[in-house]
Amino acid sequence: MGRMELSRMKTEKPVLPLERQLHEAARRNNIGRMKELIKSRVNIRARNHVDRVALHWAAGAGHEQAVRLLLEHEAAVDDEDVILQILVNSGAKIHCENKDGLTLLHCAAQKGHVPVLAFIMEDLEDVALDHADKLGRTAFHLAAAHGRLEALDFLVGSGCDHSVKDKDGNTALHLAAGRGHLAVLQQLVDIGLDLEERNVEGLTALHTAAEGIHPDCVQLLLAAGSSVNALTQKEQSCLHYAALTGSEDVARALIHSGGCTNVADHQGASPMHLAVRHNFPTLVQLLIDAGSDLDATDNRQQTPLHLAAEHARQDIAEMLLVAGVNLNLREKQGKTALAVAARSNHISLVDMIIKADRFYQWEKDHLSLRDPSDRSGKSLTFKQDHRQETQQLRSVLWRLASRYLRPHEWKKLAYAWEFTEAHVHAIEQQWTGTKSYQEHGHRMLLIWLHGVTTAGENPTKVLFEGLVAIGRRDLAGKSVPCPAPAQGSARPQGQSSVAPTGMRQSLPRLLKPQCRGAGSEPSRFLVPALPLSGTQVRPRANHSASWPWFPHLCKEGVVPGDPYGVHSPRARDATISSSPAFYT
Asked: What are the extents of the domains in the chain?
């Protein structure tokens, strides 16, 4: 204690009365009074004229209760070696253990108290340097696990066992990597610990670094030569652990170092399966870009798309569909990804998968027309269409499905446009009541619209021919004159003309054309608030020809009244089988 007083003696203001009372209560082990003073917010770190705090008095007198009370209330312990010396001199047991089996050496190493370590090793006798706690961990393990570099260096210098394992088979390297202590990990690597040493579950230090989401430690171990494709007892690679945690940085480091993306674990799951199941879209995209097998199946015969469909991972499903997957694969219950999505009533996913299936078929039939520069699919999407340029036509399709198509006619249109039985069945599984067919028809029409617009076809032409093919020429309509004003005349704003006598009244309720004269640039469609039967139809100026009621782009050289040749004898004899294919 003389050493402490000589080294710490300095002039300070005297302690306050309550602080002096706390010191006295600690010296006498008066726990009741100490609690009263602490409750009154007395400064338990106050020092007297010889730089002593209450903890010094309690430790010097060997009062364990007082020491515990002060430590529970965050008493300053900046003279650990001195306090320890006081306790030892007062007869404290030096080989005692707490309930976890931690000795003085364990605690000092865990806290990084090098002076205490030095006191224990130099002044105390019979201290076992490699004594293990109840988890089988030595002071060396604990220094590594808590990132105490100076304590680690002291223990190494004292001759501790570097390669010792705890009860889980972890070396100090596992613990430092799993906790992300980069400086300690570097020191252990420099010491020469085995990078490929495995714990009882078969994990290397690289596995624990990946599991703990520590990209810097992963990169350090990879640079030091750790095996990137080492497998655990459950046949999981480091990339599996990156997929479980969703760490894009860890996964990228592993892939860059040669990590295999298609390794299957004991359940047959690849890193892609895990990333989909745990909903990590950015990691899924990274694995796609790295060339992962998107059709790999696990022990349940599920592909990543099956999992996306089952768990309603819409963004991930979009990535997989754009990348290109086999939609015909079936899981153990015999269901495709489409059937799984339909069973779970994931309507948006059902529609996306049908769009993709039809697009794949079109792509197969038009392989020579594909743009090689767009193989990445950046301009391709299967999500719901919200584009401004299709808004008017989408509005028309809703009115067609909800007001004009009879209950089974949407199916006829679907089959005319080469929807499959599986497509129709998946759409029909949605039930919204006795008029579900309206929603079914609307969804089918939007799926169809995606196809024709993606292929660059004229949706008006294909819709017109489809309605004719299913016997709804009354909806397809006949050509109706669009009267033009006299040359040089202008119609006053708000004035309208009545539709000509004899025109079909159902079509004006669906569509109204906006067109320019022959030879002009193609104009956009106009679908206003649709009028009821008998309502006046307001023509635009400069209409110069007659057109079918479904709007279309005016083109030079089109025969007025029959722009698609649909009224020719040859066209009238067309059947459903000769109706245009999906995109033609």
From this structure: 194-285, 294-369+376-384, 387-483+505-584
Structure confidence at residue 19 as a pLDDT band (50, 70, 90): confident
CATH architecture of 294-369+376-384: Alpha Horseshoe (1.25)
For residue 261, the tally of other CB atoms under 10 A from its CB is 22
124-151 per-position pLDDT tens digit: 667 888 999 999 999 999 999 999 999 9
Question: Is the fold of 194-285 the same as that of 294-369+376-384?
Answer: yes
Residues in the chain: 584
Domain 194-285 has CATH 1.10.287.70: no
Structure tokens at 78: 């900046």
Task: Spell out the SS3 assignment of 482-512.
Answer: CCCCCCCCCCCCCCCECCCCCCCCCHHHCCC
**Tokens coding 200:** 């009882």
Q: Which amino acid is at 149?
A: L
Neighbours of 377 (CB within 10 A): 14
Count Cβ neighbours within 10 Å for each residue of 164-174 and write b for 16 or more, e otherwise.
bbbeeebbbbb
Q: What per-residue confidence (pLDDT) applies to 72? A: 72
Q: How far apart are CA 43 and CA 19, in angstroms?
A: 7
541 by DSSP, 3-state: which? coil
- Quick one: pLDDT at residue 477? 62
* pTM metric for this prediction: 0.71
